[in-house]
Design goal:
Number of helices of chain A: 12
CATH class of chain A: Alpha Beta
Distance between the termini of chain A: 29 Å
Order of helices and strands of chain A: HEHEHHEHHEHEHEHEHEHH
Structural class of chain A: alpha/beta
CATH architecture of the largest domain in chain B: 3-Layer(aba) Sandwich
Number of helices of chain B: 15
Number of strands of chain B: 14
Strand content of chain A: 5-15%
Largest interface: A-B, 41 and 37 residues
Radius of gyration of chain B: 20 Å
Structural class of chain B: alpha/beta
Strand content of chain B: 15-25%
CATH class of the largest domain in chain B: Alpha Beta
Oligomer: heterodimer
CATH architecture of chain A: Alpha-Beta Barrel
């Protein structure tokens, strides 16, 4: 890779080089006291945090994150309001926004990338923007110094995984199973396989998400993966009564399981 | 111009393949499978056989003498309402279901708005022995209860989409989520010329038969193409089907959108459900909820090839109101003895409203579905306000 790793990749590589496993929780922007949730997650040991910018049609998300999106949108949250808040936040870990391509497209790709950079957001994850369509966005993101995290799925050939890993920045997001985001009773066997296949083709940090909902499942996938992304389990705490305190509690349990 | 294969999955600036990574290999596999099947004589003849013996093609061209006189123009209807299952949707699903079998898939997933595509998919699944799951918005399940029951009779499982506006757009989200999880065994039988490449191209090719037949029938009847070819547009499959027979000629092509779901009339380019196209959205990129009297047209987007045809000026897109549609629904019933579905009643509403502009011209309208499914809804609306009869409420 020619460029210096950005802040997200540097943080994740740093964790790996110390022999640790990376933990990246996901929270939905605009949902309840989400900024306190982010701070609680950072305090509890997250290496980086994904922040969802709600979208009306989240096709890669299961019921929990759909509900979080709907509730945040009903509360009047806008992409700019999420980004403004992130710019004022100082929680000491790199942030990645996760949203759908139309949000960035409507914003204007260059403008979206430059606003992310201005607000101190390290990276972007756009789950409906596969490699073949990513060119215009990655060009804008690269120019602004924003890392673009690409997803890799169990359905891809090894050759395709190689191309995805060559283009991803920050980390490569291994999709742990065939399906949308959400907790499952057991870790799918495909999660560990996915991690192993990615580790074979890249030196970029390999994190696995989708279907990783308990500390035990994170531990299991991290026997091979460099880290785990935990979304719905965290968001469910924010949807319920527990709020930020419950998020901190859960993230702490994941941290201890991985250390 | 002709309607060729999109270049790199794009029609000009529109189209593409904006899907979760999990689905990219499935879209590639589907594209290769369709290209090979479409070039395979045995596949084409098997499909043509089904279209003839099972669906009842060719569909007739009906000249509307009484209504033509009333409107002051020459109105021709392409009778897709007479196909098996009552709409043009059967053309597409028979092709996709055969393709699914050819690809070794055992399960069809589909979305439906009015229920026409769901019924057609359930029908094809029953015919070919495939499992079938149809997603339908909760709101649509209520207003199209008869079609829900039809699908169940045909052996399909109907699942309600409970998120968002609980209409067609949300049913598509649910169908895509299902496909992400079941991609190895399932084929997503998408019902319109939308979605990721190859769907807009493949579905157009499967509906091209409408335009090809209509052109031949018009030439036989009039010795030439009609002056105007019109059809309703939600996603736009029946419109693309009939336009494809005339796009390289001189006929004016007019798509008609509901005022409450006018992607071209009220939208700006955006990306949802796999492709870039005109889209009703707010200033932040949140997709708006379409609202019209017709469940089949309640879609905030439009197929990418329509956006392209609009952008290059080859087709134009008009909007009509619900009230104009209801008047057209009654007009065709009363003057020609044909109760249309509310969807094609949109196209007739435009013809009727703009009759002066169209005076003396020949107008070919794709009558894409029959009105049986809408009779309940119209009875509530028309009988409730006492306006169901043509003679000012004097009848009993």
């Amino acid at each position: 890779m020619s460029a210096e790793p950005g802040p997200l990749e540097a943080a994740l590589r740093g964790r790996r080089s110390q022999g640790g496993k990376a933990l990246v929780p996901y929270l939905t922007g605009g949902l309840g006291d989400w900024q306190a949730g982010l701070a609680a997650a950072a305090d509890a040991g997250a290496d980086a945090i994904e922040v969802g910018i709600p979208f009306s049609d989240p096709v890669m998300d299961g019921p929990v994150i759909q509900q979080a999106n709907d509730r945040a949108l009903a509360g009047g949250i806008t992409p700019l309001a999420v980004l403004d808040a992130l710019g004022r936040l100082d929680i000491g870990v790199p942030l990645a926004v996760m949203t759908y391509y139309n949000i960035a497209f409507r914003f204007g790709l260059e403008r979206f990338a430059s606003v992310l950079a201005e607000q101190g957001v390290a990276a972007a994850i756009l789950p409906d923007l596969p490699l073949e369509e990513a060119g215009p966005w990655t060009e804008a993101a690269d120019a602004a110094g924003v890392e673009t995290v690409l997803l890799a799925a169990p359905t891809a050939s090894d050759e395709r995984l190689g191309r995805i890993c060559a283009r991803t920045r920050g980390f490569v997001y291994g999709v742990g199973l065939l399906g949308v985001t959400g907790e499952r009773d057991e870790l799918a066997s495909s999660a560990v396989v996915m991690a192993g296949r990615l580790k074979q083709v890249t030196d970029v940090p390999v994190l696995v998400g989708v279907g990783v909902g308990t500390p035990e499942q994170a531990q299991e996938v991290c026997r091979v993966a460099d880290g785990a992304v935990v979304g719905s389990a965290v968001v469910r705490r924010m949807l319920g009564d527990g709020g930020p305190a419950a998020v901190g509690d859960l993230v702490g349990k994941f941290r201890r399981a991985l250390d | 111009m002709t309607m060729a294969e999109p270049v790199g999955g794009r029609f000009g600036d529109f189209g593409g393949r904006f899907v979760p990574e999990t689905l990219v290999p499935a879209c590639e596999e589907l594209e290769a499978a369709f290209r090979s099947a479409w070039a395979d004589e045995s596949f084409r003849s098997e499909l043509n056989q089904l279209l003839a013996d099972y669906a009842g093609r060719p569909s007739p061209l009906t000249e509307c003498h009484r209504l033509s006189e009333e409107l002051g123009l020459r109105l021709l209807l392409k009778r897709e309402d007479l196909n098996h299952t009552g709409s043009h949707k059967i053309n597409n699903v028979l092709g996709q279901a055969l393709l699914a079998v050819r690809m070794g898939k055992t399960r069809l997933v589909a979305e439906t708005g009015a229920g026409q595509h769901g019924v057609a998919t359930a029908t094809a699944a029953a015919l070919l022995g495939l499992e079938c799951v149809v997603y339908m918005g909760e709101v649509d399940m209520e207003r199209q209860a008869l079609n829900v029951f039809r699908m169940q009779l045909l052996g399909a499982e109907v699942r309600s989409a409970l998120s968002g506006s609980r209409t067609l757009k949300d049913a598509i989200n649910e169908a895509m989520r299902d496909w992400v999880a079941t991609v190895e065994s399932s084929h997503y039988c998408l019902g319109s010329v939308m979605g990721p490449h190859p769907y807009p191209w493949m579905v157009r090719e499967l509906h091209r038969v409408i335009g090809d037949e209509a052109r031949e029938q018009c030439r036989e009847l009039m010795g030439r193409d009609p002056d105007v070819v019109t059809a309703c547009v939600g996603g736009g499959s029946n419109a693309i089907g009939i336009f494809s027979g005339f796009v390289d000629g001189d006929a004016a092509l007019v798509g008609v959108e509901p005022a409450g779901g006018a992607a071209i009339g009220r939208g700006v380019p955006g990306v949802v459900h796999g492709s870039k196209s005109f889209l009703m959205q707010d200033e932040y990129g949140q997709v708006l909820e379409a609202e019209s009297i017709s469940a089949g047209l309640d879609y905030p987007g439009i197929g990418p090839e329509h956006s392209h045809l609009a952008a290059i000026g080859r087709a134009r897109y008009e909007t009509v109101t619900d009230d104009e549609v209801v008047a057209a629904f009654e007009l065709l019933s009363r003057t020609e003895g044909i109760i249309p579905a509310l969807e094609p009643a949109h196209a007739l509403a435009w013809v009727s409203r703009d009759r002066q502009e169209l005076a003396g011209q020949s107008v070919l309208l794709n009558l894409s579905g029959r009105g049986d499914k809408d009779v309940d809804q119209m009875m509530d609306r028309l009988v409730a306000d006492g306006s169901a009869s043509g003679d000012d409420g004097q009848s009993e």
